[in-house]
Amino acid sequence: MAVYRSNGDLGAIFFVVFSYLDLVLLFYCLRCYERTPLESPRREHLKMAVWLLTTLLTTAFSYKVAAIMPFPVQVLVWTMAGATVLGGFYAFFLHHEGTKA
């Protein structure tokens, strides 16, 4: 439906196709991650794939939103996207839950 409504705009078609493929891959990787045993080294690779796919999706949507906003709001959109990406990286790879005494 989105491709049909794009009226041949290749940029819009690419965005829609990319977004859907990214989401399908993201859900697939999340499902694989949940089914992989905790001690498996594959979990780290899947975690990296999930973060990368999420980052790509965040960047794509931020680009589309920022394109129609005035400059101050563009700065805010990109700042929020950057905080989301960096926060996800911290949560996935740097933060380790401590033991409570």
UniProtKB/TrEMBL annotation:
The keyword Transmembrane helix applies. Pfam families: DUF6490. It comes from the Eukaryota. The chain crosses the membrane at residues 12-30, 50-69, 75-94. Keywords: Membrane, Transmembrane, Transmembrane helix. InterPro entries: DUF6490. This is Uncharacterized protein.
